[in-house]
């Protein structure tokens, strides 16, 4: 009984620490709220547009990742196949990066210098090469 109680207390402690860390007092996309409402909407519409136009690329990436895994785990390793798939994957990632860069350029042209500072902060805090997984929030 004492062992179970100890495990329960440890689990609750870990959960509490994880919750505190997840909500560290900074709202998600907090700096986005610093933009005027019309620019915030423009940001969301632009990011949603990138998300929609790159949907087929994300699907291709998923397929390629499975194919690369299969090539790596095959009973006989085919170096040429692996390298071809890896190169295709890199090209798709580059295409997605270019789409994001084009969107950022489009926004930057419409933002003031102060708004571009906020944009720079937004894009520098994104996890991963393309930002958070999933579509941007509806606004």
General description of the model:
With 139 residues, the protein is mostly helical. Helices cover 73% and strands 0% of the residues. It has helices at residues 2-22, 37-53, 55-73, 79-110, 113-124. The longest helix has 32 residues, at 79-110.
Give the structure's gist in a few sentences.
This protein is mostly helical and 139 residues long. It is built from 5 helices and no strands.
DSSP helix count? 5
Annotated CATH architecture of the domain at 31-124: Up-down Bundle
Radius of gyration: 21 Å
Please write the string of helix (H) and strand (E) elements: HHHHH
Q: What is the CATH topology descriptor of the domain at 31-124?
A: Four Helix Bundle (Hemerythrin (Met), subunit A)
Tell me the helix content.
over 70%
User: What characteristic shape results from the CA principal axes?
Assistant: flat
- Tally of strands: 0
Structural topology:
Elements: H1 2-22, H2 37-53, H3 55-73, H4 79-110, H5 113-124
Helix pairs in contact: 2-4, 3-4
Question: What keyword list fits this structure?
Answer:
mainly alpha, 73% helix
């Amino acid at each position: 009984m004492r062992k179970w109680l100890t495990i329960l207390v440890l689990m609750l402690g870990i959960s509490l620490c994880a919750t505190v860390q997840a909500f560290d007092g900074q709202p998600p996309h907090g700096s986005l709220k610093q933009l005027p409402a019309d620019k915030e909407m423009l940001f969301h519409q632009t990011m949603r547009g990138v998300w929609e136009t790159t949907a087929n690329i994300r699907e291709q990436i998923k397929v390629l990742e499975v194919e690369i895994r299969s090539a790596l785990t095959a009973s006989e390793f085919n170096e040429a196949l692996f390298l071809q798939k890896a190169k295709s994957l890199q090209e798709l990632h580059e295409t997605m990066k270019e789409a994001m860069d084009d969107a950022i350029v489009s926004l930057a042209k419409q933002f003031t210098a102060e708004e571009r500072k906020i944009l720079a902060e937004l894009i520098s805090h994104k996890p991963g090469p393309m930002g958070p997984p999933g579509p941007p929030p509806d606004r």
